[in-house]
Amino acid sequence: MTSANVTNGSKPYIVEDRPMISRSSGDRVKITHTIEPGKEETGCFTCFYSPPEYPILAKCPCFDYPEYIINEIKASQYIYVRENSIEYNQPTLQPARSDTPLTTCLCCGHSPTILAVRDEISVVHFDDIVMDSVRNDTRPCNPLHTFCCGGRGEEVRLESRFCGDACYRGRSVGAEHCGVLNCCCCCVPCVPVGCPQCLCPCAARKTIYVEDAETAVKIISKARDDARIRLQVMER
After folding, report:
1. Full-model pTM
2. How far apart are CA 40 and CA 120, in angstroms?
3. Rounded Cα–Cα distance for residues 173 and 49 (Å)
4. What are the pLDDT digits (tens) for 188-231?
5. Nearest residue to 158 (alpha-carbon basis) of 31, 13, 35
6. 217 alpha-carbon distance from chain centroid
7. Is residue 82 within 8 Å of residue 226, measured between CB atoms?
8. 113-127 per-position pLDDT tens digit
9. Which residue in 220, 84, 78 sits closest to 156, CA to CA?
C-alpha cells in the first residue's frame, strides 16, 4: 500500500492504491451526516414487557423482551455517513455470560435469564459494488403492516444489479455468513432478484433500517457521489 502523511495530525491521509480509503485528516474520519435508525416495533398484539427474570416469555404473542434489553438495543443503534463510507450498527440479542458455576455447567457458559446486546456493525465504502444503487425498498403499506405485525422501520437497499435488473451480482462469502447453508463458502456469480437473503447471502445487497427512507436515500446518494468526484474514483 502506498500512502502519504499517514497519521500526522490534521494533514490528509492519502491511499494511492485505493483512493476511497483516503480521508481529509490523518487521525480521524469525518462524519458528514447522521441518519435516524428505524425503531423496531412488535405490533398491536404485544402489550407487556417480559419480566427481567423470564425473557423466554417474549416468545408468547403478548410479550416483548424485557424493557432493559430493548432500551440497550435502541441506545446501540446508529447510522453514520462518513466522508468515504457509511457505518451502521443493527444490533441483535444474545445470552449474557453465566454468573454462577451451576449455570456455567448447565447452560454452557451462558445465562438462562439475562440477555445482552450483540453488535452487528457494517462499514461500506462508497467504491464498493453494493453502492451502485441506493433506493427506498420500504414494503407497501408499511405503517399498517408495522401496526399489525411489527417491523423495523423503513428500508434502504444498497445493491448491485445487472441483466435488466433481473439479477444481483454475486460475490464470495465465507461459511460464517452462509445462513442455513453454513457449511461451505458461497461464490455464486449471480443471484436472481427474488431469491431470499437467507438462501443467497452471496448477492451484492444490504438492507439498512431507517426512520425516513426517502431522506436517507438522498443523503447517502449525495455523499457517495461527492466522495467519488472529490477522490476521482470511477465505478468498477
Report:
1. 0.84
2. 15
3. 37
4. 778 888 888 877 788 889 999 999 999 999 999 999 999 988 88
5. 35
6. 15
7. no
8. 899 999 999 999 999
9. 220
